[in-house]
Amino acid sequence: MLVEVKVPPLPESVSEGTLMTWHKKPGDQVAVDDPLIDLETDKIVLEVVAVDAGVLKEIRQPDGAVVGEGELLAIIDTEAASDQAAPAAASASTEAPEPSATPPALSPAVRKLIADNQLDPANISGTGKDGRIIKEDVLKYMEQGADTATAESKPPAAAPAETPVNSQGRQEQRVPMTRIRQRIAERLLQAQQQSAILTTFNEVDMQPVMQMREKYKSLFEQQHDTRLGFMSFFVRASIEALKKFPLVNASIDGNDIVYHGYYDIGVAVSSPRGLVVPIIRDADLMSFADIESKIRTLGSQAQENKLSVEALTGGTFTITNGGIFGSMLSTPILNPPQSAILGMHNIVERPVVVDGEIVVRPIMYLALSYDHRIVDGREAVSFLVAIKEALEDPARMLLQL
Asked: Would residue 372 show up in a list of annotated catalytic residues for this protein?
């Protein structure tokens, strides 16, 4: 029987996607749920799997094709599988069965990294769930130079392709933008054109937070099985400030201002496909441990391109941390339709005056970009001061002062 493989249902507001690289070729045996190809949309990467066991008889759409929901991608011949499987089964019945284990499927990001670097996944130890190979495993394997031991057994690498040059004979390469990069570009341009963006700055003495974190981090990890980072402090401080200044948590819809009675905080994280902003929903109802655990789960899913559409949809306020890349100061751009975004930066020891004396303290510069159509300068400045005060006296967050 011939079974059709079609483009699966696409997320809301997504009309089409781009096929990446086929993992199987015509004539290959496939099992149910075997990954066939990855479909890149402007939000997430969807995995198209085999809907039945058999032989991949025909591929209807090539790599790089733009396809819509329900479009025919390939055909699987289930009867061919049965014909080929019968002799193998008969022969296997006369021999003692040997134990076998199917390695966990690789995520699209890991497959791409392995393919780009011509690695053998069989040589890589997986530390993910059920022994799954994650991106960090591949990077660690590459850093250790583990492939050098088997280099002699590998076929000689193909000669490098000629470097593209332009009409003036100078090196130049043109590659299409990924769908997510196109979407990021569209949203950034939209934010600049449709919002009146201003940015206000302040600085925060991180010593109280760092001292509290150092004092309790071991006990916190033992008790909650998650590491105590800085982001939970910033999420909690932002929520307390949002409660005091609800306009910063609101959005514009036509000629209306929509006040949100909930606090869905977006935390920007980097992924192999670019910057994504997964949402911590109802963050005001979560403990520090819940927030830390959720952030780590979302970060891991982002690295493996496993974030769902729901995880990337919505949000009332966003936090982005350029400090992990060494940024001293920046002006973050709004994430529409939100009215504000908080920018964190690196922590640097600086001389400051405390009680009339010059002392050295770990200082972080904060930036709040906001939509001046809805948030006035006084509210924006006061909001950022509220975050500063909460971080410089963390007990305020616990007492909700």
From this structure: yes
